[in-house]
Design a protein that fits this description.
The protein has 378 residues and is an alpha/beta fold. It folds into two domains: 286 residues, Spore Coat Polysaccharide Biosynthesis Protein SpsA, Chain A (Alpha-Beta Complex), CATH 3.90.550; 85 residues, no CATH class. It is built from eleven helices and 17 strands. The strands form four sheets. The chain has a five-stranded mixed barrel with strand order 6-9-7-8-10, surrounded by four helices. Strands 12-14-16-17 form a four-stranded mixed sheet, with helices on one face. A hairpin with a 4-residue loop joins strand 16 and strand 17. The longest helix has 16 residues. It is globular, with a radius of gyration of 21 Å.
């Protein structure tokens, strides 16, 4: 299905589809590049010349047109608006403080429900790398057609290796949906497994990585939110009604900080799967959540025989018998000699040195730095 074929006559439900881009999360495993004031979705981490959030918008626009809503922090409003000038001001929801995905997706669903109770929303994180775009859009089109049958639909990624860092989706029986020939029922969501279990999942062919993409009728999503997180449901509904009434500033300031902090997986997806209300569309495209610097090394192979991936505007990196990844935004000379799988991130006020094997541990380092009171570099 090419881009020209995306029309409501071909895809049931497309005429009431909204794409929602939650742009939260600092990405602490990418410190010191990604910080509270400049989270990872505002960076170009693939050398494409685009920030991750702009690439997300460009992938979704051919399907959703102007029906794109962005949920982001008040602190990032100007930077995100600069990146997404095509999104109308009224389609931004600004969070007073960071919350987990259930609040961000829940408030978007509640706002859309107030505008149109029959709306279908798709939630797609602002900080993922995906390609090719046309294969992604074909999967989303099938997800929309499946959501019309009153299902919450996730797009599961075919695993390419036994990752212990991702959750998994166990598929069930095939669904007979004319406009979604790839749709399956979801039997259950599985937590991040041990390595041997992850290998079994890959070998079985019955499991997908959970990429956190959900397409659903807003009515059904909110029903499950109300059943499982009633306090969260009441809060986002009150915010949405105030927004529609014309002044959301005070209710957002009062209610948002009190909302429970939980993920959309726990609040909606997992219990909905137990109730038989979740389907999966296999996503046969490149996907990476760029969760750490090892991912950046994977996504940006070394440009020359040095074996070192270098990302930066004016890199001055010299390598001898070394390999790994260097991210720099300074003019400082960096020399690597006889080191394997090195990760060096050089910024104006902080320096990180680790290995790709230990890239996931950067989060613990950030927590330690915070505990020592060095918030000025976070």
């Amino acid at each position: 299905m090419n881009q020209q074929q995306f029309s409501s006559s071909h895809i049931p439900g497309l005429d009431r589809f909204w794409a929602v881009i939650p742009a939260g999360g600092v990405g602490t495993r990418l410190w010191p590049l990604s910080r509270a004031a400049a989270p990872k979705f505002l960076h170009d981490l693939t050398g494409s010349g685009q920030t991750l959030i702009r690439a997300t918008y460009d992938r979704l626009h051919p399907l959703a047109g102007n029906n794109i809503m962005v949920v982001t922090g008040q602190a990032h409003r100007d930077a995100v608006c600069d990146q997404l000038s095509g999104v109308a001001e009224e389609n931004f929801i600004l969070e007073p403080e960071p919350k987990d995905s259930a609040a961000a997706i829940g408030v978007a669903a509640a706002v859309l429900f107030e505008q149109d109770p029959e709306a279908i929303m798709g939630s797609f994180a602002a900080d993922q790398v995906i390609g090719p775009d046309d294969v992604f859009r074909t999967a989303v089109a099938e997800a929309i057609a499946t959501a019309v049958t009153n299902k919450i639909v996730t797009i599961g990624i075919k695993p390419t290796y036994p990752s212990t860092g991702f959750g998994y989706i166990q598929k069930g029986e095939k669904l007979e949906i004319e406009a979604a020939p790839s749709a399956f029922k979801v039997d259950k969501f599985v937590e991040k497994p041990q390595a041997d279990v992850a290998q079994r999942y890959v070998d079985s062919g019955q499991h997908f990585w959970n990429a956190g993409m959900f397409v659903a009728p807003v009515r059904l999503l909110l029903q499950h939110l109300q059943s499982n997180e009633p306090e969260l449901f009441e809060g986002v509904t009150a915010i949405a009604r105030a927004r529609v009434a014309g002044d959301v500033t005070e209710p957002m300031a009062e209610i948002w900080p009190t909302l429970p902090k939980t993920s959309i997986d726990y609040a909606v997806a997992e219990p909905a799967a137990e109730a038989g209300d979740v389907a999966v569309i296999p996503g046969d495209f490149l996907w990476d959540d760029v969760g750490d610097f090892a991912a950046i090394a994977r996504l940006n192979p070394a440009a020359d025989e040095s074996g070192v991936t270098v990302i930066g505007e004016t890199p001055r990196v010299y390598a001898d018998d070394a390999n790994g990844v260097v991210v720099t935004d300074t003019s400082r000379v960096i020399a690597l000699i006889g080191v394997e799988n090195i990760v060096v991130v050089d910024t104006g006020d902080a320096l990180l040195v680790t290995t790709t094997e230990h890239a996931q541990s950067v989060k613990q380092a950030v927590e330690s730095i915070k505990a020592h009171g060095d918030d000025d570099v976070l």
